[in-house]
Amino acid sequence: MRGYRGIKYTLFICCYVFWVVSAVLIAVGIYAKIAKEKDVVDTLTVDPALLLIVVGSVMFLITFLGCFGALRNATCLLKMFLGILVAVLLLQIAAGVVGYLFTDMVMERTERLMMKAIVRYREDQDLENAIDFIQKKFQCCGVESYKDWSHNVYFECSDTNPSLEACGVPFSCCIHQQNQTVLNTMCGYGMQQLEERSAGQDVFTIGCLEKIVWWAKNNLLLVAGLTAGLLLLEVCMICLAAAQISRIKKVQQQQKENAARSKSERKDSYWYPAFADFDDE
Which of helix, strand or coil describes residue 145? Predict the structure, then answer.
């Protein structure tokens, strides 16, 4: 009985933690979506707010099935939870295998997605903040190089571009000087007109795709550890759900057997007094 309670409440606590996290993701995504202007981009692949809402909603549904099913011993909900988790685990493994076998195709798709995000820069405040964060964090600029920013209408390097930022790059591409105390948001102006060696003195010229791949290779143990930890957690939750379903079925089977035995004993008890009287005579 203690083992069953341990399985039950361990599964409930794990699901409850992820349930709360998913609710926070949904709340943040909805707040960001409401705070935006009505004419901003609403594409799932380049809208962080919409992505948060979708991911949070899926997590909320899955973890709700696990929480309620574990707490109420509902085998139907636990089976749904178990089936979804197994499907998610298999999809993650399949994605990893496909990514390893078709690395070039994955890199090409990633490059297209990142370039699309650059094109949408300034159309979505959340997307703009995300790109600025990545460029500052990885000390990079653009997808392949700093000149990729010419694909954006604000930074397009052409004589017909009326923008003040024409032929420039965002300030997040700028190299932060050690003695700099005031942020210069105009530091990237005109950098696309310079050669890479000259521009490299003031801005990062290497693309973010190369820097991210380089970071992943140099932190392979960290990436592998996080991936293995996530997969292990999913496997543990699958095992806990399967174990609770098995325990519930055993208890239900025992209850049926006890009920049948009790019913049989009650039927037999109607005859015992008659036979007892016969024996006494």
Answer: strand
Q: Are 191 and 146 in contact (CB under 8 A)?
A: yes
DSSP single-letter state for residue 203: B
How confident is residue 265, by pLDDT bands cut at 50, 70 and 90? low
Count of alpha carbons within 13 angstroms of residue 13, beta-carbon side: 7
User: What kind and span of H or E run contains 194?
Assistant: none
- Report the alpha-carbon distance of residue 177 to residue 88 in Å, rounded: 45
Percent of the chain with pLDDT over 90: 37
Query: pLDDT for 192-238, tens place per residue?
Result: 999 988 988 899 999 999 999 999 889 888 888 988 998 999 999 99
Checking if the pLDDT of 3 tops 80, the result is no
Provide CB contacts within 8 A for 127, sequence distance 6+: 41, 46, 47, 48, 117, 120, 121
Per-residue model confidence (pLDDT) at position 240 = 92
| Residues ≥6 apart with Cβ < 8 Å to 70 | 8, 9, 11, 12, 15, 78, 241, 244
List of long-range contacts for 70-76, beta carbons under 8 Å, 24+ apart:
70/8, 70/9, 70/11, 70/12, 70/15, 70/241, 70/244, 71/8, 71/12, 73/8, 73/244, 73/248, 75/245, 75/248, 75/249
CB-count exposure of residue 161 (10 Å: 0-12, 13-18, 19+): middle
Kindly report the pTM of this predicted structure. 0.73
Query: Tens digit of pLDDT for each residue in 140-162?
Result: 999 999 999 999 999 999 888 88
